[in-house]
UniProtKB/TrEMBL annotation:
This is NAD-dependent epimerase/dehydratase family protein. The lineage of its organism: Bacteria, Pseudomonadati, Bacteroidota, Flavobacteriia, Flavobacteriales. Residues 2-232 form the NAD-dependent epimerase/dehydratase domain. Pfam families: Epimerase.
Length: 333
C-alpha cells in the first residue's frame, strides 16, 4: 500500500487520483474532515467521483508521532507532499516545525518500517543560488547560506537535508523540486492557495503586472512524473520539474484572456514592489493582520530566475504539457 501525506492539497489530491487510476492501493492522512471535501472536489472535477471512495483515509498529523504508527502499518511506498506554505515572517516557527520536523518524522518512520522508496515533494525554492558565472539553476547549483532566503525556502531546504540524512542511513529516496504549480482554472475554487490565488486576483481585476520570471508546471505533469520516478529504478536523486521559464505578465495575460476579463495593465517596477512590501509590513504591524506581500515575495516578482529541466528530460524522456494550453483547457467557463 502507498501512503500519501498532504492528500487534501493541490498536488496530493491530484496524486491520489493518479495513483488510483494506475491501480495503486492508497492511504491518505488528513487533519480536518472539511479538507477532505477539497480532494473530493478534484475527483468530481475530472468526473472520477467513484474513484474517491477507494481512498483509505486516516486522521493523523505528521507531527503526531503516536498516530503515525498506525499510518505506516502495511505501507511499502511513501509520497510526502504535506507542507506549510507561507511567506509571512510570523510563520517562521510553524514553517520549521511542519516542514523540517514533520519531514524528519516521516523519514524516521520510513526507516523504521523499511519503506521501499520515499518521495519528497520539495520546491524550486530549495534549489541553489547562481554564482556569477552561472546562468541556469540546476540540481547541482550550490545553496549559498550567505544569501537571503525566505523562511519557506529555508524550511524546504532543511526538509531536504532530513531526506538526504535518511538516504545515508539506507532509505531509497527521490526528491522533486517543482516550480510554480498550476492547477485547473475552475470557477468552483477547488483550492485557495497557489495558482488559485493567481486566478482569483486576475478574476477580481488585478491591475498590476511584473516582468520577473520563474519556472511553471502543471499539476498533472508533477504527479505523472513523480509517479514515473517512483516506479523506475532511479533512486537517491533530485529532479527540477518545470515545463518552461515564463514571465509573470504572460501567465497573468493568459488567465485574464481565458476568464474574459481585463488584462493587468500597470507595470509594477521593482521600486514600487519595494514600497508595497514596506507599506504592507507597516499596516500588518499596526493592525495585527497577516502579511499579503513580503520582502521575499516582492523580490520574487521581479527576479528573473532561469531553471533547467534537462535532467528529468534525460532521465525519463519527459515531454511537458504546454502551460498556456493547460490554463485554457481546464477553464470551466
Amino acid at each position: 500500500m502507498v501512503l500519501v501525506t498532504g492528500g487534501t492539497g493541490l498536488v496530493g489530491a491530484h496524486l491520489l487520483l493518479h495513483l488510483i487510476e494506475n491501480g495503486e492501493n492508497v492511504r491518505a492522512i488528513y487533519r480536518s474532515e472539511n479538507n477532505i471535501q477539497k480532494t473530493k472536489a478534484v475527483f468530481d472535477f475530472y468526473k472520477k467521483t467513484a474513484l474517491f471512495e477507494k481512498i483509505n483515509w486516516l486522521e493523523t498529523d505528521i507531527l503526531d508521532i503516536p498516530s503515525l504508527e498506525t499510518a505506516f502499518a502495511g505501507i511499502t511506498h511513501v509520497y510526502h507532499c504535506a507542507a506549510l506554505i507561507s511567506f509571512d515572517p510570523k510563520d517562521e516557527e510553524k514553517l520549521r516545525k511542519t516542514n523540517i520536523e514533520g519531514t524528519a518524522n516521516m523519514v524516521n518512520f520510513s526507516l523504521a518500517y523499511k519503506i521501499q522508496k520515499f518521495c519528497f515533494v520539495s520546491s524550486i525554492a530549495a534549489l541553489g543560488d547562481l554564482a556569477p558565472h552561472e546562468k541556469e539553476i540546476t540540481e547541482e547549483t550550490d545553496w549559498n547560506p550567505e544569501k537571503h532566503h525566505s523562511d519557506y525556502a529555508i524550511s524546504k531546504y532543511g526538509a531536504e537535508m532530513e531526506v538526504w540524512r535518511a538516504q545515508q542511513e539506507g532509505l531509497d529516496v527521490i526528491i522533486v523540486n517543482p516550480g510554480v504549480i498550476l492547477g485547473p482554472l475552475s470557477k468552483n475554487k477547488i483550492f485557495d492557495q497557489g495558482s488559485a490565488e493567481i486566478y482569483k486576483k486576475v478574476a477580481d481585476g488585478l491591475r498590476f503586472y511584473t516582468l520577473g520570471s520563474t519556472g511553471f508546471i502543471t499539476v498533472t505533469d508533477v504527479v505523472k512524473i513523480t509517479f514515473q520516478l517512483m516506479k523506475s529504478d532511479i533512486k537517491n536523486e533530485r529532479f527540477t520539474l518545470i515545463a518552461a521559464n515564463i514571465v509573470f505578465k504572460e501567465i497573468l495575460n493568459t488567465v485574464a484572456d481565458t476568464l474574459k476579463v481585463k488584462r493587468p495593465s500597470i507595470h509594477a517596477k521593482p521600486f514600487f514592489m519595494h514600497f508595497l512590501w514596506m507599506a504592507d509590513w507597516l499596516f500588518s504591524t499596526l493592525f495585527f493582520r497577516r502579511r499579503s506581500i513580503t520582502k521575499a515575495t516582492a523580490k520574487a516578482s521581479y527576479s528573473k530566475n532561469l531553471y533547467s529541466n534537462e535532467k528529468i528530460k534525460t532521465a525519463l524522456g519527459t515531454v511537458f504539457s504546454d502551460v498556456y494550453l493547460y490554463i485554457k483547457s481546464t477553464a470551466d467557463n
